[in-house]
Amino acid sequence: MRDRDVEPFFATLRAANPLPTTELEFSTVFELLVAVLLSAQATDAGVNKATRGLFHAAHTPQAILALGREGLEEYIKTIGLYRMKAKHLIETCRILVEQHGGEVPRDREALEALPGVGRKTANVVLNVAFGEETMAVDTHIFRVSNRTGLAPGKTPLEVEMKLVQRVPKEYKVDAHHWLILHGRYVCVARTPKCWQCAVIQYCDYQPKTPPP
Predict the structure, then answer these.
(1) pTM of the model
(2) Which CATH superfamily is domain 29-128 in?
(3) Alpha helices in 58-149 (DSSP H)
(4) What rounded mean pLDDT belongs to the chain?
(5) Which are the catalytic amino acids?
(6) How far apart are CA 103 and CA 123, in angstroms?
(7) Residue 131 backbone zone (phi > 0: left; psi -120 to 50: alpha; other: beta)
């Protein structure tokens, strides 16, 4: 993607969706952290289905600790890798209570020290909850960044660093939402829906997929 195409690429995505946000359901920073932790290798829809019941029963670190690991597993057993995620979430809640007064820290190092929280999860929390200009590179962003030529890279971190350099500042807070949604619904994995793409003129991908 040419440098001159980056700004209109994001301007077009913003015009179509001025206020993008995550599709995960949450009402507090802690609920967001839980939802993102549970979303690894799972769909947002699947996570939302599980967390509706979980958050009704327990929506604080203290309440989830009170459930215990087995009690927590009952709420999230429809999610992939639920046993490992339950173990991580219980440990995360314990650390939040013991070291952070039950609050989610606004600090990358502290977030990444929580079990089950990697760089991507920390980036989502910092961006969605605290409005920081982070790029949470998931499978959709990785694909779109490489396929379009926006930020090609062999690893998520390489793509993240290129996005940080290349995305104009006025679009940085919302950029990862636009890219995720674009990858989820238009620039899909197997056969990109080029005929539905609003930013096709800026994209390096060839040959463009014709209408079915």
Answers:
(1) 0.91
(2) Hypothetical protein; domain 2 (1.10.340.30)
(3) 61-76, 82-100, 108-112, 119-128, 139-148
(4) 96
(5) 120, 138
(6) 17
(7) left
